[in-house]
């Protein structure tokens, strides 16, 4: 009767082992599920031109998202384009990202132009809002004009680049090449039809709803997006990044340069003030920092510098105002030529040029006028300041006597006899004596 006991004990051990295995499986599954649904949706705004600052901003957030295990990095884009070097940095960071990256061209009226189109093609998920457009990615040279051979090499390189990106993401490589070679631009609906993007969403909430449960190819296998209930956090630029991004704007760089030149002009025309020179030096350094990423035509810089030299020369040279007129003309021409680019976002706006030139010219003309008046003003102190002053004779002056001039007693002489109490005018000063004449009588 005791023989079955070992069998029963073995069955109990089997049950226990099975239960333990089941618990392990449940724990592993729960951990995997928790890992797949942990983290947040990080929203990164890309507004304005693509430059080194925006590239650094996106890289910092992609790295931080990978460390914190975010579920998705959503880049909301509205850009006319930007620098090729900055664009390539962003593309490399997106392709190497451990966190899925979605690029969303929004809101309505936004665009992913030029460099923005290439960044959108590189994303794991490309989406657009209705009323947006993408494309026009033809490369444009910044600065000196390229010859035909170099222009063709740059074009071929850009075409091959977007072809490789589109093919890797499973998008329409032919249309991507046309965006580069023919500057093709597509509205959202046409881009979806041509398989340039993956979906259209009216707003961020609709986009996240459409992405729920969507598989995203990753190096270790597809990752299913679980975004329901995930907290959404908008990433902000640091103070440093905001300042550098603002400086990179052509309008801001232009105003900084003008402030710099103006500060130096004021310091040179009025030595010893110090503060304008310090402010001008700081403004010029910031302007030259911005010039590293802008298509600067240094003929424009030299024309603006020439304008300030002409303003200063007006103080020293009697030109009847012609130097000032020449300075205003040189400043206008220099402002127009300063940034040489066919892209509007890389040029200074006409409104900024008009206001800045008017303000700088008015200030310069005012400073020059005040300086000229100061040079021409009659001296009010010392011996020269007494010439022309009037007073009265304290005694007969025939030929010498005493007079009261400008609150002081002076020894005086005159070429004509003067009686005590006569009104007199100072003609000349000789040491501690003055030469006088009767007031109202002209010198011969």
Automatic annotation (TrEMBL):
<dbReference type="Pfam" id="PF24961">
    <property type="entry name" value="NfeD_membrane"/>
</dbReference>
<feature type="domain" description="NfeD-like C-terminal">
    <location>
        <begin position="384"/>
        <end position="438"/>
    </location>
</feature>
<dbReference type="InterPro" id="IPR029045">
    <property type="entry name" value="ClpP/crotonase-like_dom_sf"/>
</dbReference>
<keyword id="KW-0812">Transmembrane</keyword>
<feature type="domain" description="NfeD1b N-terminal">
    <location>
        <begin position="41"/>
        <end position="202"/>
    </location>
</feature>
<feature type="domain" description="NfeD integral membrane">
    <location>
        <begin position="251"/>
        <end position="367"/>
    </location>
</feature>
<dbReference type="Pfam" id="PF25145">
    <property type="entry name" value="NfeD1b_N"/>
</dbReference>
<dbReference type="InterPro" id="IPR056739">
    <property type="entry name" value="NfeD_membrane"/>
</dbReference>
<keyword id="KW-1133">Transmembrane helix</keyword>
<keyword id="KW-0378">Hydrolase</keyword>
<dbReference type="GO" id="GO:0008233">
    <property type="term" value="F:peptidase activity"/>
</dbReference>
<feature type="transmembrane region" description="Helical">
    <location>
        <begin position="247"/>
        <end position="266"/>
    </location>
</feature>
<protein>
    <submittedName>
        <fullName>Serine protease</fullName>
    </submittedName>
</protein>
<keyword id="KW-0645">Protease</keyword>
<dbReference type="GO" id="GO:0016020">
    <property type="term" value="C:membrane"/>
</dbReference>
<dbReference type="InterPro" id="IPR002810">
    <property type="entry name" value="NfeD-like_C"/>
</dbReference>
<dbReference type="InterPro" id="IPR012340">
    <property type="entry name" value="NA-bd_OB-fold"/>
</dbReference>
<dbReference type="InterPro" id="IPR056738">
    <property type="entry name" value="NfeD1b_N"/>
</dbReference>
<feature type="transmembrane region" description="Helical">
    <location>
        <begin position="320"/>
        <end position="339"/>
    </location>
</feature>
<dbReference type="InterPro" id="IPR052165">
    <property type="entry name" value="Membrane_assoc_protease"/>
</dbReference>
<feature type="transmembrane region" description="Helical">
    <location>
        <begin position="351"/>
        <end position="372"/>
    </location>
</feature>
<feature type="transmembrane region" description="Helical">
    <location>
        <begin position="296"/>
        <end position="313"/>
    </location>
</feature>
<dbReference type="Pfam" id="PF01957">
    <property type="entry name" value="NfeD"/>
</dbReference>
<dbReference type="GO" id="GO:0006508">
    <property type="term" value="P:proteolysis"/>
</dbReference>
<keyword id="KW-0472">Membrane</keyword>
């Amino acid at each position: 009767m005791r023989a079955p006991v070992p069998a029963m004990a073995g069955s109990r051990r089997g049950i226990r082992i099975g239960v333990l295995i089941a618990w392990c499986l449940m724990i592993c599954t729960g951990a995997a599920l928790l890992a797949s649904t942990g983290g947040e949706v990080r929203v990164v705004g890309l507004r304005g031109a693509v430059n080194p600052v925006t590239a650094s901003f996106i890289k910092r957030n992609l790295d931080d998202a990978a460390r914190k295990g975010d579920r998705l990095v959503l880049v909301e884009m509205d850009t006319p384009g930007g620098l090729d070097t900055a664009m390539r940095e962003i593309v490399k960071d997106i392709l190497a990202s451990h966190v899925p990256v979605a690029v969303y061209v929004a809101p309505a009226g936004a665009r992913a132009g030029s460099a923005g189109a290439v960044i959108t093609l590189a994303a794991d998920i490309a989406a657009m809002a209705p009323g947006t457009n993408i494309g026009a990615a033809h490369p444009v040279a910044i600065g000196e004009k390229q010859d035909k051979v170099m222009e063709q090499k740059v074009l071929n390189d850009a075409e091959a680049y977007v072809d490789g990106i589109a093919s890797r993401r499973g998008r329409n490589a032919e249309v991507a090449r046309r965006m580069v070679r023919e500057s093709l631009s597509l509205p959202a609906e046409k881009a979806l039809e041509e398989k340039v993007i993956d979906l259209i969403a009216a707003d961020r909430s609709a986009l996240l709803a459409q992405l729920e449960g969507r598989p995203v190819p990753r190096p270790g296998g597809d990752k299913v997006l679980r975004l329901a209930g995930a907290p959404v956090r908008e990433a902000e630029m640091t103070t440093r990044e905001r300042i550098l991004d603002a400086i990179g704007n052509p309008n801001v760089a232009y105003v900084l340069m003008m402030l710099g030149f103006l500060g130096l002009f004021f310091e040179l025309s009025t030595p010893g003030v110090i503060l304008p020179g310090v402010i001008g030096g700081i403004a010029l350094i910031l302007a030259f920092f911005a010039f590293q990423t802008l298509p600067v035509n240094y003929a424009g810089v030299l024309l603006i510098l020439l304008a300030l030299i002409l303003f200063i020369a007006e103080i020293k040279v009697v030109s009847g105002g012609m130097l000032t007129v020449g300075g205003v003309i040189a400043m206008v021409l220099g402002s127009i030529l300063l940034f040489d680019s066919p892209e509007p976002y890389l040029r200074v706006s006409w409104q900024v040029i008009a206001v800045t030139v008017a303000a700088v010219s008015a200030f310069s003309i005012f400073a020059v006028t005040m300086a000229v008046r100061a040079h021409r003003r009659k001296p009010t102190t010392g011996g020269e300041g007494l010439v022309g002053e009037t007073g009265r004779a304290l005694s007969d002056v025939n030929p010498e006597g005493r007079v009261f001039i400008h609150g002081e007693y002076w020894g005086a002489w005159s070429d004509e006899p003067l009686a005590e109490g006569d009104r007199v005018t100072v003609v000349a000063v000789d040491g501690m004596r003055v030469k006088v004449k009767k007031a109202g009588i002209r010198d011969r």
